[in-house]
Amino acid sequence: MIKERIAHLRALMAENHMDAYIIPTADFHESEYVGDYFMARRFMSGFTGSAGTLVVTLKEAGLWTDGRYFIQAARQLADTGITLYKSGEEGVPDIEEFLSEKLRQNGILGFDGRVINARFGLKLKEKLETKNITVKYDKDLVDRIWTDRPALPKEPAFLLEEKYSGKSSADKLQNIRKEMNKLGASVHILTTLDDIAWLFNIRGNDIAYNPVVLSYAVITSEHAYLFLDQEKLSQDIKLKLAADQVELKDYQDIYTYVKSLSPQMSVLLDSKKVNYAIYQNLNSEISIIDATNPTVLFKAIKNPVEIENLRKAHIKDGVAFTKFMYWIKTQAGKTEITEVSASDYLEARRREQEGFIELSFDTICAYKANAAMMHYSATPESNASIKPEGFLLVDSGGQYYEGTTDITRTMALGEISGELKTHFTAVVRSMLNLAAARFLHGCIGMNLDILARGPIWDMNLDYKCGTGHGVGYLLNVHEAPNGFRWKKVPEREDGCVLEEGMVTTDEPGIYIEGSHGIRTENELVCHKGEKNEYGQFMYFEHITFAPIDLDAVDISLMSPVERTRLNDYHKQVYEKLSPYLTSDEKDWLKIYTRAV
Known about the structure:
This protein is α+β, with helices and mostly antiparallel strands. Helix content is 34%, strand content 21%. The relative contact order is 0.09.
């Protein structure tokens, strides 16, 4: 089927005189995760991971993805004729290098300019200039192949009340205009869905697990324009937006609107986020201020209302997960349980919690060797039966009115080997070490990553991803600009200074292909500590609460300080969660949070 689709694409490329065609994992807004309508790369390649770019020439096809998906992609691309290119690995060309080598002189490169960001499109054009390559960006060739393509979503939006958001949309717009003024911008084009949802205090259901609304926004010194399907808005939302002097326009009108902007204007936009088609529709004489959207930092720094709400959300989520952990630990081997049914049970426990809306991502429930794939998702073919042995890794989260959660626990379901205990204990030490950091303001995640990675590097092991990412507030579970990683990865955009109010995950791991995967993940809130002659010190607060499986810990491998950290954390887990558990669950939790 994939081979036939690639052949059909090549026929359309030849018809349009194209020598290569790019299909990214993207919607019109550079979203990390996309709705069904936009899953063109998955449709054309068969690879189901959340990140990857397919490039097809008249003779070759390649798919680029990152280390989270190397194992999965290799399996799913087998027998498709598509070559896997492992992004970032030594000797692997990037897409620009590949095209520069493969395209003929005076050739034509094609893509849908609505799903390629302007920065990448301009970079391609520059890289291929020596070959006099023409870029055609007005053809969605996949649309002609995907005859039963899903429609764009029609889900209704909802307002996020200030008791949850902590700040009005009017105040947020005022802050944006102050930043525009500092930068000398008369117009700001905003296309990222989570930024728009945050700015206007609206949420929706246009992308699974990400409560956003397909939309664009343009802000001037006096007006704001919101481009979206207006049928998604209730009368209450329309009245609220009108009160904030927000004018509504149809979703597709953004392209004609940007053409109307005066050449004398200065336009603030982020070329990594604004799509190539919008950028190319701007008058060439307009002054472009290419900078990160001000909303990125504003929404990353949670206000006091949001932080207090997040604490509440995580108690609810911790209760749901602890009920699940009690069930899986006591029922494995007694009841028929699979990866899928375990995921369903956990979701049901979350749905029992007041204020729960939906999951924050597709649950990763991975048994034994399946957990070696960092972003594994069970299929009917891979759905493993869970037995009273080995490790089960569960990475999951929920969307609540009080915020977004993301937690991972790895659980021993029976006797495990000394190697597994050693690896598990190293991961626990790593997570707790980073969470205990004291550091001066000005540090970025790269300064602190060694605290997590150190115990794992000591064993000459590593994990091919960052240690943590920012988390939105009832928004995307992955949020810029904060994060933890050991080296700069420009496309991840997570290298900012850690500020008070930022929420970041702490999730080191060990993944051994064909054997096991281990990850322990908590969310941390950054706070200001003591300020003295050395500067402003900072520290982290755990807001995720669920037991870490003591059955898998080798206490002899932990220092006295590390044991104290584990005991202190487990004391909080019991105190915060036990009031919401049954007597049996509470007795079990007492044992699994005991001091060691």
